[in-house]
Design goal:
The chain is an alpha+beta fold and 94 residues long. Helices cover 27% and strands 35% of the residues.
Amino acid sequence: MQIEHKKIGPKGVFYIAGTKEPLAKMVYTMPSPDKIIIEHTEVSEELKGQNVGFQLVKTAVEFAREQHIKIIPLCPFANSVFKRKPEFADVLAK
């Protein structure tokens, strides 16, 4: 499964493409050049239980590290991943 990234203006999405709609997606906004806010994570029924949501968050963390930006995880799922993974703390906005 390949996670793709699309950015349009101040909004973006990490997603796994499906035939018509994404099978999984994590939507974010970028309120400033150095921050993203993860707003929503969604995984289709066919991918549930395959660790896809975590992989989306992990991809956002890698993106943040590469771009030298911080993450604000407003999405409850993304927030729970950050609480369980202290190794992601370096990209959390303070």
